[in-house]
Design brief:
alpha+beta; 162 residues; globular; single chain
């Protein structure tokens, strides 16, 4: 099971962040080697760490793929660039953010790609949509299920977008 977090908090031209997130999921469906299995509900959350940025739109996509992790990462980073992502300072506002949260049960620490995502288990904006598409998921490094991880982030500001 491969899980990709999708997020944005800046418009892309006249297009709202939610529309950008929805559009990139449609784009992922057309990428050779990626089979979109499930898409979570969309959520709005406060920036983390707290800042003066606009709220984020967040979701998680569950895919099946035989692409190696680094090839998938390259595809996602190209999509971010295609959708106007500017890499400036860490945690900057963005038109699109795509993160590999988990790649099957792979655990690795690497300067280019750490799996599972090193902060996913600390963020309601990842865990709540992840629960929508993979309620049975267990964090490969911690050995803890998503339900238990959600209890640890229960105070974070997040709401489902109707």
């Amino acid at each position: 099971m491969v899980l990709i977090a999708v997020g944005a908090n800046l418009p892309l031209g006249e297009q709202a962040a939610l529309a950008t997130c929805q559009e990139v999921v449609a784009t992922l469906r057309a990428v050779e080697g990626i089979d979109v299995i499930a898409v979570s509900h969309w959520y709005e959350s406060a920036p983390m760490p707290p800042s003066g940025q606009p709220p984020y739109v967040n979701g998680v996509v569950r895919i099946a793929t035989d692409l190696p992790p680094y090839q998938l990462l390259n595809i996602l980073q190209k999509l971010e660039a295609d959708y106007g992502r500017q890499r400036s300072v860490p945690n900057a506002a963005r038109t699109l953010d795509l993160d590999i949260i988990a790649y099957n049960a792979l655990s690795q620490t690497d300067p280019k790609l750490t799996l599972p995502h090193p902060r996913a288990h600390e963020r309601a904006f990842v865990l709540l949509p992840l629960h929508d598409v993979a309620p049975e998921w267990v964090h490969p490094s911690l050995g803890v299920g998503v339900d238990a991880l959600l209890e640890g982030v229960s105070g974070q500001e997040i709401r489902r977008i109707p």
